[in-house]
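pasting for ref. prot 1 ->
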Amino acid sequence: QVQLVESGGGLVQPGGSLRLSCAASGFTFSNYVMSWYRQAVGKERELVAYISRAGGTTIYAESVKGRFTISRDNAKNTVSLQMSSLKPEDTAVYFCAARSPLGYDYWGQGTQVTVSS
């Protein structure tokens, strides 16, 4: 079955960097659009970044543009989110998501990112 496993979260100081990774299995990875979402306490889940099937198109939330970079490796079935210049407001649980060609979304379990001094 479809499995998405995130890793790389943790505690980082403001201005620091983290790299999140998502390992995918159980489906043809290159056929799926991949995204990163986040959800902070008391807030709705929001889209952070999106990458097309071949990686040629990326879209970012305004709040992370210029600081975050999404990438994928279709040979290794992984998608990553490089986060830099982190701010306290980036604190959230980050989720990896895969959208099937028919529009069905699969989700990972999430990884906590905490930005605090």
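and prot 2 ->
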Amino acid sequence: QVQLVESGGGLVQPGGSLRLSCAASGSIFSIYAMGWYRQAPGKQRELVARITSGGNTNYADSVKGRFTISRDNAKNTVYLQMNSLKPEDTAVYYCNAVIKVVALSKKNYWGQGTQVTVSS
């Protein structure tokens, strides 16, 4: 009933930038917090950045000052602007959203993931 579709991943050189997008669609009544997580090979999935419906944000210490999360509530879309990318940012990035579907309770949803590779 709900889909999160990510886009914007790819290969970038160290110091470069990428912008990830994630659009939610389906029988959406309301969207609460939205966020981005990442998982590198052999590591656990970790929170990168999160934004509430009111616009409050929080970031992992490793990305503070380099990444910016934002959302367009009219488009049910969350963005992650990633600047000054480092090789250690290489991972699969997953979109996450807490969504209330019409006639159901709110639930946690995940996107399919998009690969970000930072390499020269």
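Residues 24 and 76 are 5 Å apart (CA to CA).
The two ends are 40 Å apart (CA to CA).
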